[in-house]
Design a protein that fits this description.
CATH architecture of the largest domain: Orthogonal Bundle
Family: Belongs to the cytochrome P450 family.
CATH class of the largest domain: Mainly Alpha
Number of helices: 14
Bound molecules: protoporphyrin IX containing FE
Radius of gyration: 22 Å
Number of strands: 17
Strand order of the largest sheet: 4-5-13-10-6
Helix content: 40-55%
Keywords: Heme, Iron, Metal-binding, Monooxygenase, Oxidoreductase
CATH superfamily of the largest domain: Cytochrome P450
Protein name: Cytochrome P450
Distance between the termini: 63 Å
Pfam families: p450 (PF00067)
InterPro entries: Cyt_P450, Cyt_P450_B, Cyt_P450_CS, Cyt_P450_sf
CATH topology of the largest domain: Cytochrome p450
């Protein structure tokens, strides 16, 4: 079975003509092409669909997301080597579907399937929910106040380097029960590519080895001890398996939350009226955080590989296909959200698609929300005059991971 190039390769209808486009998607050896409806082409100019790897897209992907959502809801991006899905309902459906796993191959939760995934996930989830998270968040709150007070003494500072990158990593390091001193090392790995999908595992393995040996001999109450003493199918997890899980927790917890928090601060600092409202009413912080994740998710493009034929946006894609779920495009779908480009902390239902959907949806959502809430509270309390440094404008960038890399502010 092989994929064929996708629309538009037939005659283009006049602009404005709604058309149910039917294109060949897959050919089985010796058989006729199977055709599937892949959506509606509206007002096309005859131009080829845009590619996510075109120049400038990583700086601002939102204009391209809009074109894809409006005119090419399911389309093959030849340069990227993936099918792009961009409408809210289709992205939810794709992420919620079994049979799509993370790329490139790896050993984290996001790469596992079926019962193996269920068993490993059940080990991690309880430590990232409810009372367990409340206990962790208290530690995150203390760290946030220490960091915020340090910043308060400076005339000008970069909130990303001095705050956003430290706090989430410290929260997950604490959840695992690793020493606080390891936070700096983890942070460096995050900058070098440690994400939800692991990466840098040799260094991580070496760093973890003595901790694993100690936890196996004398388990404590932390998440690392839970993983070291857990059994799946009657057998303890290998050091490699524990390391893979720890990698996805540190990477996900560190990088994704740091970028999301940086975008959250940028959205608030860009709108002094809404910032003042949150200052006055701290109970609005969770909604303001959720709205920022909708508008500016830290993982706007989630790549998945089909391990069997899957249905995406109404079409069947064969095993081996790579699907790019455009969470960033879906979060600004006007069919789902009114005035989708606007950051509005009073929006009734910003959803939670930034954390994915279905069995692989992010287990760290609650920890991330608590970390962000305590982080913002600490900054608002310690920095009453917080505002942009003169002339500074945030410049988010990135596609697989996205957010501003510098936030220059005046704390007083
Ligand atoms: C704002 C912060 C975060 C965002 C936006 C985020 C986003 C995501 C997304 C989009 C996925 C893929 C979901 C899917 O395939 O449907 C994911 C998976 C995952 N996240 Fe996060 N994440 C965040 C924070 C965290 C934290 C704090 C942790 C851990 C402490 C974490 C651990 C994980 C893990 C382990 C997975 C893989 C789950 C699985 O495959 O079953 N994430 N996250």
């Amino acid at each position: 079975m092989r994929c064929l190039p996708v629309p538009p390769d037939g005659p283009i209808p006049p602009p404005g003509t709604p058309l149910a486009l039917r294109v060949p998607l897959a050919v089985r050896d010796g058989s006729a092409p199977t055709t599937h409806s892949v959506g509606v082409l509206r007002g096309p100019s005859g131009a080829a669909p845009p590619s996510l790897v075109s120049p400038g897209v990583a700086r601002d992907p939102y204009p391209v997301f809009r074109v894809l959502r409006e005119s090419f809801p399911l389309v093959r991006d030849e340069l990227l080597g993936a099918w792009l899905v961009s409408r809210y309902a289709d992205v939810c459906g794709a992420l919620g579907q079994d049979g799509l796993v993370a790329v490139p191959p790896g050993r984290t939760l996001a790469h596992m399937e079926g019962d193996t995934h269920r068993a490993h996930r059940a080990l991690v989830e309880p430590a990232l929910r409810g009372r367990a998270v409340a206990a962790l968040a208290a530690g995150a709150s203390r760290t946030a106040y220490v960091l915020a007070r340090r910043i308060a003494a400076r005339p000008e500072t970069d909130l990303v380097a001095e705050f956003c990158q430290w706090l989430p990593t410290a929260a997950v390091t604490a959840a695992l029960g690793l020493p606080y001193e390891d936070t700096a090392r983890v942070q460096q790995w995050c900058r070098g590519g440690l994400t939800h999908l692991g990466g840098h595992h040799h260094e991580l393995d070496a760093c973890l080895r003595p901790h694993l040996a100690r936890r196996r001999a004398r388990p404590g109450g932390d998440l690392l001890s839970v993983l070291c003493t857990a059994e799946v199918d009657g057998r303890p997890l290998s050091d490699e398996a524990v390391s893979g899980l720890v990698g996805s927790l540190l990477g996900g917890g560190g990088e994704a939350t740091a970028l999301a928090f940086a975008s959250f601060l940028a959205n608030l600092l860009d709108d002094p009226r809404q910032l003042a409202l949150v200052r006055e009413r701290h109970e609005l912080i969770p909604a303001a955080w959720a709205e920022s994740l909708r508008r500016d998710p830290p993982a706007p493009v989630v790549l998945r590989r089909a391990v069997r034929p899957v249905t995406v946006a109404g079409a069947t894609l064969p095993a081996g296909t790579v699907v790019a779920c455009l969470v960033g495009a879906a979060g600004r779908d006007p069919d789902r959200f009114a005035h989708p480009d606007r950051y509005d902390i009073l929006r009734a239902d910003p959803g939670r698609l930034a954390f994915g959907a279905g069995r692989h949806s992010c287990p760290g959502a609650e920890l991330a929300a608590r970390t962000a809430e305590y982080g913002l509270r600490a900054l608002l309390d310690a920095l009453p005059g917080l505002r942009w440094a003169p002339g500074f404008r945030p410049a988010p960038r990135g596609l697989l991971t996205r957010g501003p890399r510098i936030l220059l502010v005046r704390p007083r």
